[in-house]
Amino acid sequence: MAVVRIPEEHRTLNDDQAVGTYLLGRGIEFERWTPDGRVADGASADVILAAHAGKIDELKRRGGYVTADVIDVTPDTPGIETMLAKFSSEHWHDEDEVRLIVEGRGLFHVHPADGGPVFAIEVEAGDLIRVPRGTHHWFDLCGDRRIRAIRLFQDVSGWTPHYTQSG
Prior knowledge:
Layout: E1 3-6, E2 11-13, H1 16-24, E3 29-32, H2 45-51, H3 53-63, E4 67-73, H4 80-87, E5 91-92, E6 97-110, E7 119-124, E8 127-131, E9 137-141, E10 147-153, E11 162-163
Antiparallel strand pairs: 1-2, 1-7, 3-8, 4-10, 5-11, 6-7, 6-8, 6-9, 6-10
């Protein structure tokens, strides 16, 4: 279950409906996703993609995505600090950022263009999130430093971050 924290308002949302409504009001799609079947921990990326092909195909049709892959980050991932440094600086993309969380947890921080308060979305296994193109955001792992997610792309080369240099 995703959790939204809005520090400036001293507010936390942890009910799927409240989270979905809040995020949709900011242009971000969220849904609680029930996988078609259980995939064993440590399964290969190919097994994960095959097991969730139905949902991936639905998202491809709905959003014009052309490819999907699996990102798998653990505390033992080589170069993890360098990788996280790229994700944790505020940036935006020319295409949507779509994630179906398979294992672990992560934090998307969103800096709304309308001047609204910055908020954080903590996602976990079973959460599906679509951050629209152009949305200023950054990402970090939670304390367990573990996430495995299916990513969908509208361009086969993947997305490129455009850093805002906001600090």
